[in-house]
Amino acid sequence: MSIKILLTTPDYPPKLGGLSTFTSNLESILRQMGEVTLHVWDNVQQLTQFNSDQHFDWGIHVHFMGGVAAARFCKKNLNFIHGSEVAFTSPNFIKRTFKKIMKRKFISYLEESHWNLFISEFTRQFLVSKGLESDFSRDLVFHNLIDLKENQLFGPSFTQGPLQLVCIARDVPHKNIDGAITIAKNIQNQIKREVVLTINAMRDPSLHSNIKMVCLPNLSNEEREKIYQKSHFNLLPSLDFSSSGFFEGFGLTVLEAGKYGTPSIVFSDQGGQGESVHHRLTGWSDLYSNREQIPQYISEFDEVSYQQLRVNTFQHTIDNHDKNFYKALLDGVLK
Question: pLDDT over 70 for what percent of the chain?
Answer without folding.
Answer: 100
